[in-house]
Amino acid sequence: MFSASVHNGAETVSLASTTTRGRRRQRPLSSENSPQQPKAKRQRIPLNDQTFVHPTATPETYEVKSARPSMVELKQDGIEESPASKQELSFRSKKARPGERLSKGDGSILLSTNIAFDVRKLPALPDRLKLDATSRQHGFVDSSTGYALSLSHTHAVVWPYATHTPSPESFTFTLPYPSKHSTDRLPLGALVPQSASSSEPGLVVVMPGSGKVTYWESISSATTLDFMRQQRNGIEDSITGMFSGELVNQIIHAESAASFILTFSSGRMAYLSVRDAQGRPKISNQFLRTSLGPASNGFFGSIRHALSHASVQGDIAAIRSERSSRQGECAVVAVTSKGRLHSWRVHRGGHHDLLAEVDARGAILDAIQQVDKANSRLPAESLKILDFSFVPRELHQKYSDMSQLRQSPESEDQQHLLLLVSLSSKQTYRYTLVEVVLSTSISPENPIDVGMVRPISAYSTPPDPHALARPRLYLPRPNIIAFLVFDHAAVVVSIAQPPDSPDSQILEDNHLLPASFEDVVDLRADPTLEIVGSGIEEPQGHGLNATEGRLPRIRPKNPAAVLLVRGAGTLRIAVADVERFASEKPPEVTAKIKLEQAVFFGVKEDNPLVFDIQHGLRFTDAEYGVAALELSQEILTSTGKHFSTLAARVDTNIKERVQYLEKIMTQIKSLKVNLDRVTKWQLLWNAEKLHVANVIWHKHEDFTNLRPANSKKSIVAEIVEYIRSEEKSEPNAAKGEVDELRHWFIRDADRMEIFIAWAYEVIKHNSKANLDQASLTCLIYEAAEIYNSAITDAFVFRTKNLELYGLGNEKLEHGILGSGYNGLPTPWTCHPFIANNVKRQVELSTEWVKQHWVAESERQDATIQRIRELLPQMTEVYLTVVQELARSYVASDDPKKAADGQKYEHIYEQDRYAKVVLLAQTENWEAGIRIAENHESLAALAEILIREIHALQNQLCSPGLSPEQIDQLESKVDAREDQVRQCFATYGKDFAFPYYEYLLTSFGIDTLLDYTGDKKYKTMYLRTKPELAKVSWINDVIDEEDIDHAANTLLDLGLAREQQVWNKKIELSLGKLARMAESSRPSSKASTSLQDVNVNGTAEDAQVDAIDKELAIIEVQDGLYNTQIRPVISVALEGEELSLVQEKFALKIPKKYKILSQIFDDALRRLINHEALDPLTLIDLLTLITLPPETKDHMPDQFFSALRVAYNGLQGAERVQAERLIWRRCYVKEDWTQLNNTTLKNDDDIAEILGQTHLFSFYCTLYASHQSGGDKTEYRRLQPSEAAGVYTETLDRRFEQMEKGYREKVLEAMRWENNNLLKYIEKHRLDQWAKETRKFAEDAVDQQYDETTAAGASSPRSVSGSARRQSKALDGMNGQNGKTH
């Protein structure tokens, strides 16, 4: 009945009688060999207080069979009588001795506990009930006798429910008048308190339909009746006077131990007695009457009249009796479901007096609606009274003060009741406890006095009309806690006086009750589980609850409710400390308490209780989140009453705690709680830590197994020892906690990030302590295992459990979040300590392997080899950790963390290349390739592939290889080269560019150009690298046969990027040549239009013109170097070239304007270094330099050369400004103060002086260039006044980014030049002298041309003075347009 579990051998026991004693002698199957004589009854020891708490005898079962054959088959309750039921039954064995002490372990199973009460499953349950878990049956628990009763259609079973043995001594009674149909009402029964001659109770059973009554005076002596064939008169009878179709509904105890009150479906009530006046067994009944109704059958004719009108007052919901202090009297109260209350004083023998008859419906409803506004919205006609209880009397004053209930009235004519009332609608069902005082002395206007109204908010499930037991209300002493028992739940309700506070005072002033303790104990939704009976246990220190002067057998310190649960057994709900409910801090149901119950007890598969039903006790999602985190932390640290600091097997302890953490989430899901994202991740991270703790513990055991007997201390134990005391909880040696290692795994798993980080620190400290190499190698190996297994398993656990923790929508990459770190704390797996120390461990392990590992060595150290094998995984762990740390910190709202996140991102970018490439040093080729692809480090992937191929090719060159070895190596090379080609196809230029970069830097240009595995990306790589343009054009010509692109590359290099003048000249020349060669080839497209040809031709002409202009500038620079600088350098000592040239061509300007000297010296240095000078710098150099007379004539005029540079290299306003600067510096090159003074000078003298000026040479060269026709450029001649003012306010583009002070100095020097020019113009007639000099120069050139023509272009004649200068000017015109190539 009460448990689905079956003990070994239980299948062989008769279902009509339970298991016999194990030591009992087996009876013979027949009487052939046994003497026919009665067996003597063994002397029984009277029951005492120890009988039910510490039995030492083997459990027994007795069956009492009716001598009268049953009218129906004994299968109506699903139990078939077996042949074993016909066996003779032995008698009870010896009971426990009175002097034996109780054992602390009572054998009960804790099913649930919280701050207020425990729920335990009591061990005692007859085997018959264990086997029968589905039949219809009900019962009750009687703590006064210590027995429980279970009734089915055919049997009654009585057993001491509080004993400590699983199969207690029990008594099974076969009912003489079983029910005819399985749907009939179950028999009613009651235990009759023991008589003076017996130490055990009797039993009375009433069949509801037939009215048959069976009485056994003592459950123990009843077992002998059938055997002794005693006279049965007076122990079986029927209720006389029952109407046809009338059913017995309830049976309760009346004024004496052997009398009862029965209620009937008609509303009638009867007095039943099972003993006569002399105390002998005799069944008699009397329907009681009253003058309130028709005198049909005595007193209870009025009861029938008053209670049978169900439409007006409802059926009898409950009837209860209260024993009076006067001998032979009791008060009986009946309550109808519609709210009518009736009370009587009943005397021995059935005499009675009506005390009160009240319709309390209106008063109860008004009181409920005044206190509970929610109930006021429910229809008044739905009010029902389900049950009630007498409020216990004679309490100590302190307990009366603790309770919300009033003090019990002194007069026994007043009945102090607590009602269980319900109001309902289609969607809502609400329960309320209502205190009423019923008395004859109350005024007719107020027939009852309503006291406390206590709404029930924790439970709102409607009662099941088909339940085997009605809802029950229990109010045990000392009136502080009430128990509500339903078919699938029990509610524990506090009715204690709330502590005084401003809030409670406000609520009281508003006729409201402050919230007090309520909690619900629910059964699982299993059809076999149902509460079919109940009872209470109450303490006896608060006023005796004696039965005719006898103390009850069960005397707890605190009140408890006992439930008979079909399919489970006997459950006891015991309050821990009843007085605490009335304290300043009473127990409170919190989200954490409810979660604890589900976590620690919901994991048990055989627990009949369920914890995911919220009822009215609803908490917010935030409250559940806080509770879940607190509970998770307690599980991690094994704190709280559910944990111990001792674990014989650490792995088992951790696995249990992991189950608890999982149960938190399953409970949260079942409650449909929506936790916030941060809480979910924190709960998952806690679970990861505990999972990793289990992994590390197993690693520790593996390490110790591998270590020699004299060195069993693994790195795990070392780490725990090295961790600072403030970062771990210290074991309490005074309590026997001496194993520091186990203590850490039990108490400090929440500090897992500290533990993992310390692995490297242990090695560092031991290496400083000069630990021997073998031991250090062992520690390095164990540390690598710790890092790999801990972090990797954490990531695997995280990935597998995302759905469980409500994070199924999160996207993970290699076990870490790809994005979405905003608002999340830093994950424990990427703690900066871990990231730093894993990196150090990778570097240390790599270096250690490099030093002590030799490839293909026969005498290889096994530990070193294992370290080498662990390196790839450890590298991946490190990269994943630092990547997670970078992502987390970058998303942080903390500016410092965000800045650190940028640094970690940079570290990750560096190390995903550097640390992966390290694997190549230990020949972990395959793993390195895999990790590089995982972390998209294509540069590392390219390098590892190249290095492996190179290593294999080197092996092929080794002497002495067999053909098989050569074939194997060649196959590996081919496979890797195929993989390279596949990478080209898969990753494109992202792989190709790093591949060619490493190929170029490691093996040179030849290897790069000779590589034939790819053509597309090699060309793309070379063309997108400006610095490789000198190689790219070769590839264009050789591999691509793209002369046009080669020309473009050369020209782009020469025109825009080349810094060396000689290289620039060659590149431009080759580019021009390639361009000309490509343009001379016929077009490959037959459809090329004439317009396209013209456009292309125009573009070609423009590009060739640009090349010519650059070459012209280069020619000017080369001419200056070759004619003026080279002769000076040729005689200089090595290393003294620059200083000698600067000394030779030093400017003679005021020191104040030395900035011009700096500009000049910088340009001179660049010229000596063969740098390609920009036009403006070259112009500065040409216009500032003073050429020595001996070499001056070796190059064209310097100012004309500068003008050519301006026209070839500059455009627009920039060229105009440069022209003005050139003319200004030419004008100020002479001292016009002396030239303007012509005093005492004849014309020839003046002509000679003008002929020696730079201006005269400039004009001659300009005019001769124009006259020769070789240079088509129209150079402007600027007057001094036109050249004035240039660069006095702003400078050219070279100085835009210079410091302001530097620019001011340059402007000051320019203004000095300009002031000199203005002085010559204003005071020395420079404008006029310039015109005269131009005229004189042009005449001289014309004269030279005439003389040359007249001489027939013969060898030049020597001319003196200006004629010689003119001739040289003309000679310098050859090729001045730059078209010399």
Outline the fold blueprint.
Elements: E1 61-64, E2 109-113, E3 117-122, H1 127-131, E4 138-142, E5 147-151, E6 155-160, E7 170-174, E8 188-192, E9 202-206, E10 212-216, H2 225-228, E11 236-238, E12 248-253, E13 259-264, E14 269-275, E15 281-287, H3 299-307, H4 310-313, E16 316-323, E17 329-336, E18 340-347, E19 352-359, H5 361-371, H6 373-376, E20 384-390, H7 397-402, E21 415-424, E22 429-438, E23 448-456, E24 472-474, E25 481-485, E26 489-494, H8 502-509, E27 518-523, E28 530-537, E29 560-566, E30 569-575, H9 591-602, E31 609-610, H10 621-637, H11 650-670, H12 677-706, H13 715-722, H14 740-747, H15 752-768, H16 773-800, E32 812-813, E33 816-817, H17 832-852, H18 862-890, H19 895-921, H20 925-934, H21 938-956, H22 963-987, H23 989-1010, H24 1016-1023, H25 1029-1038, H26 1043-1057, H27 1061-1080, H28 1090-1129, H29 1137-1144, H30 1155-1168, H31 1175-1184, H32 1189-1192, H33 1198-1209, H34 1212-1227, H35 1232-1236, H36 1243-1251, H37 1254-1268, H38 1280-1283, H39 1300-1323, H40 1326-1350, H41 1362-1371
Parallel strand pairs: 1-7, 4-28
Antiparallel strand pairs: 2-3, 3-30, 4-5, 5-6, 6-7, 8-9, 9-10, 10-11, 12-13, 13-14, 14-15, 16-17, 17-18, 18-19, 20-21, 21-22, 22-23, 24-25, 25-26, 26-27, 27-31, 28-29, 29-30, 32-33
Helix pairs in contact: 9-10, 9-11, 10-11, 10-12, 11-12, 12-16, 13-15, 15-16, 15-17, 16-17, 16-18, 17-18, 17-19, 18-19, 19-20, 19-21, 20-21, 21-22, 21-23, 23-24, 25-26, 26-27, 27-28, 28-33, 29-30, 30-31, 31-33, 31-34, 33-34, 37-40, 37-41, 40-41
